[in-house]
Amino acid sequence: MPRLSLAAAAVALVSTLLLSPVTAAAQAAGPAAPSGEDKVNMLIVYGDDECPQPKGDEITVCARKSENERYRIPEELRGSQSPANDAWNNKVMAYETVGRSGTQSCSPVGPGGATGCVQRLIDKAYAEKGQNPSIRFGELIAAERAKRLSTIDADAAATQARVEQAERDYDARRQAEEAGKAAPAPAVPAQTPTGSPAGQ
Question: How confident is the model at residue 4 (pLDDT cuts 50, 70, 90)?
């Protein structure tokens, strides 16, 4: 038994030593972006800070906040979800639905009381989404993609024009070469055996 545990420890040690460089290289390389997807760089800049320019096919979007927000706690973390911090008005409004039961009430009481819960969750989700103070990076990314796609037609037309011009230049050179080969050679007068032209 001790021999088996020593052998297992030796195998574990050897595998750790062999695999650690590979693991370190993989971590240094970072996660690769899936093929066909844009690399998106999302940043928050403050005041008059400059948004860095995108490199290559990278999409860089910057959300700008005022300078006085630079060193503050993020807005998402400033509030508290504790029930002790709930406003008195909200507690009173909650009492309005205490005795409500039946269809569409999302209550375990009465026939059809379980209905209405999904709609309540949907309404709550939309209310949270509408009041969310955080910046919507999705909209910024969509706007940047739309700006890039707006130039695709012009770039494609320019590339097509260059290709057609190159084809015309190639055809013109080929026709000039064929015309040069097809031109008859200049006539050379016939020579007599003595070296004088014929007919003299």
Answer: very low
pLDDT computed for residue 193 by the predictor: 58
Based on the number of CB atoms within 10 Å of its own CB, is 59 exposed (0-12), middle (13-18) or buried (19 or more)? middle
Which tokens hold the place of 64? 């700008």
- Residue found under tokens 């008859």: 184
User: Within its chain, how far is the Cα of 76 from the centroid?
Assistant: 25
Burial of 61 (0-12, 13-18, 19+ CB in 10 A): buried
**Rg of the Cα atoms in the chain:** 39
**Choice between 90 and 6, residue whose per-residue pLDDT is larger:** 90
Q: What are the structure tokens assigned to 160, written together?
A: 């097509």
Q: What is the largest CA-CA distance in the chain?
A: 136
pTM to 2 decimal places? 0.35
86 vs 91: CA distance, rounded Å:
7
What does the block give as tokens for 76?
């998402």
Judge contact between 81 and 87, C-beta under 8 A: no
Please name every residue paired with 60 in a beta bridge, in sequence order, or none if there are none.
41
- Residues present in the chain in total: 200
* Tens of pLDDT, residues 37-53: 778 889 999 999 999 99
Which one has a higher pLDDT value, 49 or 99? 49
CB neighbours of residue 107 within 10 Å: 19
Residues 149, 143 contacting (CB under 8 angstroms) = no
